[in-house]
Records
---
Amino acid sequence: MKNKRNGIVILVLFLLTIEIYLIIDLIYKYKGVQQVYILAPIVAVLLYGCFRMLYQNKRENKVGIISVFVITIVICGMTILTRPTYSYKEGRVLVEKYLESSDDSFNEVKNDKMLIPLTNEKQHVLIGQYGYYYKYIDDINELFFIVNPLTGKVSLLEDEFN
């Protein structure tokens, strides 16, 4: 019985490792538009619970093991299913396609802001109301764009966002 319990706990630890990888990957690819930082404390508590269960000799921990397993599966599913449709790089491609219709040649300029707030946009479970922000220039013009990470809608802003 102890080996079965340890096997389940090790499986949960493996799933939590995948979850940690997903969280880091989502922060990098989506530049913080998906608010996975909310899940970090939950994952930390689950990790603590797993290690504690591994080193306890009590048999009556079935409810704890099953609870940790179910919560881990739910968190992995939430993280995967609530991902935005477009990453920051994919948003850049959408802006460049938008600019292809222009006769001018624009170059992207690195800026400090990667996200700016959207207004009147539907908010999903882990996705805040933010859009990807891009700045492009040519010889005389500066263009500022926002891309909705859920819909891929590209909007040209009149002025730089402050």
Note: Strands lie at 107-109, 115-117, 130-137, 142-147, 154-157.
---
Amino acid sequence: MKSLKIILVCVTLMSFSAKSQVKDVRLSKESFFINEALLTGQWKNEDDPTWLLVFDKQKVIETYNNERLDTMFYKLSTSCDLKDSSSKVSLLQAFLLFGYDNDPVTKCYQVLNLSDSTLSCMNNKTGEFFIFKKVSN
């Protein structure tokens, strides 16, 4: 009878441990999701600190040497197609789309990393890599 109780206690403990591991996996999958709130703020190019991107709600202002170069809207997407845009996408398949009212997608960048402090992306047409550091919210 004692061995049966010990076996039941062990099975119960393993069951709780398995549930805990499943919960941890679910949490780590959530950490792969990014949203527009992470982009909001000023981002300085790591290679050329005079190049700055300022992300606001649905628009981005590009400046170089303190001169405004461009103002575009942006969308997060799961591809370079505007129809796949979403407010929350997986970092495993994330793209930044830039465009204008009359030309919705003029630039597409694959997001390689996005955190509170770093944005790294690749131009989908040229293959160029860019790393930006957040300087303010």
Note: The longest strand covers residues 67-77.
---
Amino acid sequence: MHENRKPMVLLLLLITASYPCFGNAGALFWGMHIGSPSFEDYELDCNFFGFQFYTVSSGGQRLGGFGSLIVSGARPEPYVFGGVTGGVYLGQELVLGPVVTASNLLLGLGVTSSNIGRDAGHIAVIGEAHIEAGFFISDWLQLTCFGGIQSILNLFPSWPSQAYFFYVPVWGIKFAKVE
């Protein structure tokens, strides 16, 4: 197996194995950075996928965590390892019959490789704010689309934000298990 694909296969196996343990709610997601010359500082051309697990209170507040893998499509070889992130997932949802809307904030730490950004690999902070809208496919499965903005800021080995600070629009889809 090609070296750059091993982390992706490992993450997919981990996500699949942990999916039944999400508890109150959880999701598998896929997203991508979208080019918007008027609202970005660097074209990343990356995809990201992973999982979210969270509990939903009676008032609709979401609290949990996430893990994701970033793969870069900007190199001649498609889908090379770009980084791994994980952290806290916060949100507020509104359910109106079969329709679900939410606003979410993801904050975490990760590692980026030399395949993303302008420099060698770094320990980085990631943040993403997005809104989502979806509908229930069944009593326990929901299909959702999301869109927002994602930021990645280096922490180490360079001084914070000295090597890079990216902010790019994102969109994606997710399948959520809910109880």
Note: The chain has one helix and eight strands.
